Amino acid sequence: MKKLWLIPLLCMVLCGCGRQSIPPEEALRSATEITFSTEGVTGVMTLTEEGCTFSFTKPAVLKKLVVFYDGEELTARFGELETKVPRSFLGRIVPIFELLTAFKSNEALQVGENIRGVTLDEREFLLYYNSESNRITRLEVKGVDGTYCYNVLSYIEKNDDTESAGSD
Q1: Residues 102-149: tens digit of each pLDDT
Q2: Which of 47, 83, 86, 120 is the most buried (most CB within 10 A)?
Q3: Cβ 76 vs Cβ 85: under 8 Å
Q4: pTM
Q5: What is d(CA 103, CA 110) in angstroms, rounded to the nearest whole number?
Q6: What SS3 class is residue 82?
Q7: In 10 A of CB 100, how many CB atoms?
Q8: DSSP track, 48-78
């Protein structure tokens, strides 16, 4: 009688009551935070109602830098100093916000075996994922202004009032 609690637990495990597998573009659409790396910079993009905030963990000199982006203007804060900065200030970082915006507002197409894509304004936005773990692994933006690649280290998605974190 004391071991009867094992039966419901076993049923839950066998029925797969864990996290459901969702398409990677849906995970990106519901992302609230993405930790990424590109060309020696590791950063965190946090989405807000007004746009996004970029903070950095590597290199160490950037740890005090926080940049707010509303989709048009960039405001940088370094310690006590705050100033508006040109888009070129975060030239290789801003496209990750544009990629996320493109996936949130457009239908993604299967581009390759483990690649989803959105084409918008002569730019191609690509999401690479690992189908076995159902995890987003890389984001890429291709356009006339160059190609920008981001390794996705982790992301937090918000679904139906619950938050879940994913990382490699």
Answers
A1: 988 889 999 989 999 999 989 999 999 998 888 999 999 998 888 999
A2: 47
A3: yes
A4: 0.77
A5: 13
A6: strand
A7: 20
A8: ETTEEEEEEEESGGGTTEEEEE-SS-EEEEE
